[in-house]
Amino acid sequence: MAAPVQALAQAQECRLALLLGLDVSASVDEAEHAIQRSGLVAALLSPEVQEPLFAGPGVVALGIYEWSGRFQQDMIAPWRLIRTEADLLTVIEQLQAAPRSTGEYPTALGYALGFAADQFALAPPCLFQTLDISGDGQNNDGFTPDLAYQHFPLDGVTVNGLAIGGASHEIRQYFERELMRGPGSFVEYALNHSEFEDAMRRKLERELRVMILGGLAPPTPPG
Known about the structure:
By secondary structure, the protein is of the alpha/beta class. The protein has helices at 2-13, 30-45, 47-55, 85-97, 109-120, 145-151, 170-179, 196-213; strands at residues 14-23, 59-67, 73-82, 128-135, 157-164, 187-190.
């Protein structure tokens, strides 16, 4: 019984494992990629995000990866428990220092989900797991998101989206239909990349606050 008790105590120490996936497919040019990186940094440093990030109870584990084609997924900031501002700044420094992983491949959203499942298996034990995928296009390479959900262990993961681009909101509707998954999941929307920072800030604030306000119940232990 000692091991399960210890695992539960560790999970209670960490309230949320939050994994951020950034689209670097061929549809994202260099200027847009720079906007995504700087927008995420600005969102993480904003008071609206830092307040719920450090409010507790429990800490947040944060990881960041870039995704595009079938075999082009790269962790640019590996899992880190964000206990202090110094921890957050370390993640931000990694994000700023990492070169763009790729930029010439299509949009393999199903593979991005499969990669995320593997990364959650390496995450610190936390009460909740949330995947936060941003992108500006629909899956056009490899298996689809619905097949990823069938074949990868993502049942306990809440999947939110940040859909970028298009006054018609077609990409937002696609993310809501194909990507969004789990209790309390949602899709944030940015009309274009210039709105990425504001959309990311809103999304991170919402994801972090729901864990503090008790918007979701802890997962039920297996019987």
